Amino acid sequence: MQAEILVVGGGLGGVAAALGALRAGRRVVLTEEYDWLGGQLTSQAVPPDEHSWVEQFGVTASYRALREGIRDYYRANYPLIPAARAWRELNPGGGHVSRLCHEPRVAVAVIEAMLAPYRSSGRLTVLQPYRPVAADAGGDRVTAVTVEHVRTGDRLTIEAAYTLDATETGELLPLTGTEYVTGFESQHETGEPSAPDTAQPMNMQAVSVCFAIDHVDGDNTIDKPAQYDFWRAYQPDFWGDRLLSFRSPNPRTLAISERSFTPNPDDDPLSVVADQRVNPGDGNLWTFRRIAARKLFTTGTYDSDICLVNWPMIDYFESPVIDVPDVDTHIANAKQLSLSVLYWLQTEAGFPGLRLRGDVTGGADGLAMAPYIRESRRIRAEYTVVEQDLSLAVRGDKGAVEYPDAVGVGMYRIDLHPSTGGDNYIDVGSCPFEIPLGALIPRRMDNLLPAGKNIGTTHITNGSYRLHPVEWNVGEVAGALAAYCLNNGQTPRGVRNTPEHLSGFQAQLIRDGVELRWPDVSGY
């Protein structure tokens, strides 16, 4: 098969990359290993993690179209009560983590609708479920990628002028021989205040296998998980209790705190204001990532709220799942941890009415279809974003560094979950930041671009750049950049380092609704 632009990985970055390239008139082949497009938003079942100004500014126009499309889908298809239907900033789950908490399938439907015109015209070909298994690369160029059907084993080789790696773990980087880094860089290399003295390449953030639950009458207790006794006794040194408990470190202060858990509270979801500046929202785990608030729908629609479990106790930090020989074993262990948390809630914590809602998350085992991957392999980039570029403690009222090659914006605290090296949370205030084009350009490769969490960040700054709107922005820009290069006979490096092409590309992004600068707002 041949393509002008091949996008490997159909998560948020991959979908946005395809849209960016298609909008510029190019033909695209998009591959994805799971049955749903959308990555962390859908197959990984993580409601959007977004900044406080998301309803006003600070995201691309196409990401805003995705968000508003989700709301419109609810208004068109769900029996909302009149007050919810009239709520401009409709939050279907009334969750506290985000101003838009929703069921994964709705995002799948909206993403499919966004891509539908291009599929119909023949300009977009989507291959599912396929994962990359090999690549042909010579010199500084990738000539082809081979993908394999995850169920049949059939293989297909795709040649492309440009290849974009939008996989969750940067899978194309080792396959193509592209230089990359994993884990913690050293302070000697990056100068980052929070970095260790020595590089720790196998020290990576925890992965999590999320799941959805509701609470109804009866005993819905699952079979005892095979590893339950192990996880029930598991107690990290820094946790302050067993992992299977409601006690854990506060990410921002590291003080041991106890969270509450109250299924179906008598709250008013219309009054929820999700704002990370004011409150991280994780005090009551039920409402933290609630994705369906029963009171927003006509009586009888839902027997219960639906709660998405992406909580501290499901973080699996026994081993990384990148560059290790037994990835499948560790993913299976992470699933056992998640099932053990559910079983503990149903038995020892006293909530037998909790019901696993695999129909909501799409996984055949009742869990999310895919593990939530926070940290990817990252390219050795022309420019690497470091902590001192955006840390609120370092930058203060100066704000984050302004880059002359800015191609987008983002904002999130530097939020690192416990890691495989035994580190506790690192949660540092951030300034609203920009995305430099240099972070998307490998030091050597000419026609391979990162389109997700694999850009030139560090272990630390990945904590801010890994969230939904930033991944989308990165992917959209990568797709637009590949198309710009084809349309203008340029290379990505040439675009960045040639003033007239850089300004021309930035002007194109602005026309397409990509914000390059922040207004005068302060970080948190």
TrEMBL record:
Provide the GO biological process annotations: NAD+ biosynthetic process
Output the Pfam families linked to this UniProt entry: FAD_oxidored
Species name: Catellatospora methionotrophica
Q: Which Gene3D superfamilies match?
A: FAD/NAD(P)-binding domain
Q: State the superkingdom.
A: Bacteria
Q: Which PANTHER family would you find in this protein's record?
A: L-ASPARTATE OXIDASE, SLL0471 PROTEIN
Q: What is this protein called?
A: FAD-dependent oxidoreductase
Q: Select a single GO molecular function from the record's annotations and give it.
A: L-aspartate oxidase activity
